[in-house]
Amino acid sequence: xxxxxxxxxxxxxxxxxxxxxxxxxxxxxxxxxxxxADVFVVMTxxxxxxxxxxxFRALTRHPVLVDLFDEPLSDRIAHIDLAxxxxxxxxxxxxxxxxxxxxxxxxxxxxxxxxLAVPTSTPLLVAPAMNTVMLxxxxxxxxxTTLTERGVEIITTGxxxxxxxxxxxxxxxxxxxxxxxxxxxxSTHDDFKGRRLLITAGPTREPLDPVRYIGNRSxxxxxxxxxxxxxxxxxxxxxxxxxxxxEPPAFVKIVRVETxxxxxxxxxxxxxxxxxxxxxxxxxxxxxxxxASKKLKRNSTTSLTVELLxxxxxxxxxxxxxxxxxxxxxxxxxxxDIDVNAARKLQSKGLDLxxxxxxSRPDAGFDVDTNAVTLHWPDGRSEALPLQSKRATAEAILxxxxxxxxxxxxx
Length: 411
Ligand code: CTP
Prior knowledge:
- By secondary structure, the protein is an alpha/beta fold.
- The protein is 33% helix and 22% strand.
- The protein has two domains: 11-187, 3-Layer(aba) Sandwich (Rossmann fold); 196-407, Rossmann fold (3-Layer(aba) Sandwich).
- It contains 14 helices and 21 strands.
- The structure holds cytidine-5'-triphosphate.
- Cytidine-5'-triphosphate is lined by residues 200, 260, 279, 281-283, 285, 311, 313-315, 330-333, 345.
C-alpha cells in the first residue's frame, strides 16, 4: 500500500519542559519525523537535566536551542523566527510553570518567549505532565481554562501511577495520542474530523479442526486503505480485521479476530459509538457445525462431509440496531449480475450505500492493489468509479460518504 508521509513539508516547533516525562519527548520527536515533519526543538534548561540536547539534535538534525541568546543564524532572531515559521507548536511535556507563564504572558526564557511570539493563527498544543495536586490546583486549572479559551489545545493527561508514586491524573498523555493530535490539527483534508468510523476488513477463518479452516481470498487491502484514508481525514478509526498480512495503518485502533462470530462480537461492541460503519470484510457465510478438537485424519477411500451452519450477517445486524444518525455502508463482491445483486443486498441489509466490485476481474477485487467499484444508493442512483489504486478508491468512497452525511445533516 502506498503511503505518503502525512506531515511532509510541515514545520513543528516542539517545546520540552523539565518533567520526568521529558524522555518521552524523544519518542514524540522521532514519530513526528517519521511522519515527514521537520521538527525544531526548544528545551527549557530544566528539561536538559532530564534529557540531553544531543538526543534531539540527532533526531531532528537541527540545533537544539535552550538559552534566549542561542542564535544559530546571525541574520535572524531565533525566538521570532522559530515561532513564526512553524506550522504548529507543541509543548510536551508542559509543566505547571510553562502553563502559568503562557497564561499570564511571562517571557523569561527562550521557550516562554517563543510561545509568546507564536501567531494566534498557528495551532498551539500543550500536553501537560505533573503531579495530580499541581494539576488540580485552582491556579493551574484557571491557567488551563484561560489557554483553552484562547484556542490552545490541551491534551488531557493520563491516569496512573506518577513518578512521585501518587496515583491520579497528571501523566503525560500517550505518545500516540499526542502525535495524532498534531497530525489531526495539520490535516488539510479534515471532512471526517471528530467522526468515529468502524471498518471491517479481511477474510474470516472458520475452523474445521486445529489446523484447517474455511477461508477466502480477501487480502484486507480495501478495508485497510479505507482505514488509512479516514485517519488522514481526521477520523478516529476502529478496524476490526480478520487475518491479513498487512501492517495496520498508523493511529488506527485495530481489533484482530478470526471468525465471523468474533467479528460480530467486536463490531457490536464498537458500533454504538461510531458515526459511520463500513463493512469491507469478506465474511465467510458458513462455519462448521462442529469443530474437531484433534486434527482430522485423512482417509483416501471415503468422502468427508462437513455440515455447515450459516454465519450471522454482521453488517445487517449492525444496520438493524443502528444508532440514530449512523451511516452504514457495505461492499458487494460479485461475479455476475452486479447491479441487480448489489441493489438487492443494499435493500435486504438495510444499508445507506453499497459499493460493488466485480471480483472476477484480474485488476479489481481480491488481493490486488487496484479496484474498480460502483457506488449504489437507496434512491436507485449509481456511480461507477474508474480503475484506480485501492487508496484512491478509498478516498473517493469517503468523499461520497462525507457528501451524503452533509446532505442529510447527520450529526
Ligand atoms: N457481510 C457481513 N456478514 C456476512 C456476510 C457479509 O457483514 N456474514 C457484509 C460484507 O462485509 C459486505 C456485505 O455484507 O459489506 C456483502 O458481502 P458479500 O460477501 O458480497 O455478500 P453476502 O451477503 O455474503 O452474499 P453472497 O455471498 O450470497 O453474495
